[in-house]
Amino acid sequence: xxxxxxxxxISAFLSVAIAACATSTPPPAQLEVEPTPSVKPPVSEVVVTxxxxxxxxxxxxxxxAEFALRREQLDLAxxxxxxxxxxxxDPSISAHTTRLAQYLNNDKAxxxxxxxxxxxxPDNQDARLTLGNLLAQAGDPVAAAPHLAEVLAxxxxxxxxALAVAATRRGDQQTDRLLETLNGLAKQYADxxxxxxxxxxxxxxxxxxxxxxxxxxxxxxxxxxxxxxxxLEAQIRQLMGHKEDAFQRLQAAIASNPEDSKLRLQYAxxxxxxxxxxxxxxxxxxxDAAPRDxxxxxxxxxxxxxxxxxxxxxxxFERLLTLDGRHNEANFYLGRIHETAGDxxxxxxxxxxxxxxxxxxxxxRRVASLLLAEQDFAAHAAHxxxxxxxxxxxxxxxxxxxxxxxxxxxxxxRSTEALNRGLEQLPxxxxxxYARSMLSEKTxxxxxxxxxLRTILAADPDNSTALNALGYTLANLxxxxxxxxxxIARALELNPGEPAILDSMGWVKFxxxxxxxxxxxxxxxxxxxxxxxxxxxxxxxxxxxxxxxSARDIWRESLSQHPDHNVLLDVLKRLSPGDIPAGD
Length: 584
Prior knowledge:
The protein has 584 residues and is mainly α. The protein is built from 32 helices and 2 strands.
């Protein structure tokens, strides 16, 4: 038996619980891409009627999804709808599932649902547009292009500029492939300004500035006041070095529309590349018009900081703390300003207020550095204990940060104690075990080092990092060369071409007396990653092969860039190669 959805209850349980929200890629520097805000209307505001009967096995799950929506158990609702959209292959349910996933910012689920939506309803332009935007957002603008082309063919507006910006962020291959697609569309839609602008963005990325400007001029021939084109022209001319006339059209547009804050913001952003004082004047106008906008005030404060005006920057960051948003950034920069001024107490106070986010690690690393510079180990320990209490989910990274900061000032015993406490709280944690093994190697506690690495390998025999670390240490500090060779060979098999492992293989081959083979591995490692330790090893093998001048050249170049590197200095002291300083 199959059920038709005819009763009010069953109609309700397929209701859209959220409003359709258009996806967009992040805005490019030169163009404003307007995001559509997500809103959440009452459940059952919009009714979706399936296009075919519902099988018995799907009725109960769909009822479960409906009641999950009513109770705001949205993850459960989404999981159920995802499953049922694949079972039923119904356009309405696929559309509903896509919108729900978008609302929950579940990009993977949204893309999965949208792909099915287009598959079951290929002529639905809303489905095509949604899928195209999601593919661009997922970093595949080339795959998105055909779907937006379908929208364009049906007379809709397709946001190709968003695709173009996404392609430039994915590299030259995506840029070239999308440009080829747009070139084809330009022949079909000769008057489409969206296609013209998108081509201009891609040509600008390829540094084909004259061709990019030609595209912008074509837009102006159709619409002389097209704002995206005005901003893009200014950016291209700026990149071409046209200091005198880069902003003429943009300035005229702003003069004609002084209340257009978005256009003025684009102008201010462009000015930050060439004239910070002028940029600050534009940001000041914007802040005066919107004094509670934290993002605008933050931009103004950054410009003041870049201009070296810490007095004004400090006032602006302090004002930012009174607004909603950007408190982390404000505290971080206030910490830097106070640190530069030598006010350690205030610097620590502001850094310590930086909560989880992009500046978290840097801020609390500065707290540690400032406290340890005053030898205040008690305050240092208390700070990290407080952090772990506040952010228990980040305990691993906080223990690592605490230990590393102590290691930076050679407080190795205290660093080990921090890692020991970490492992008591998080037994078997791979990151903490590995950090302790490296610290043990530095203090020549080879027994603990080997024990920790073998603990990692017991849980994960294919951990190439641990295999390589143990193999290299055995080759470097013991005479267990055959065992070291086996460990490094396994690591290299798991991760072929990794410079650190190539270096280890070269070093163990050197220890075994296989100089020519050692040279091959070390040269490959050095070519891929000219690290000073690799340079030290390569030079030593060349020295042993009688190629002293080549060894000197490598050491001399590496020493010029890394004058204090211990491994490099050690080999120079041991071999004392003539005119190269061997250190104290």
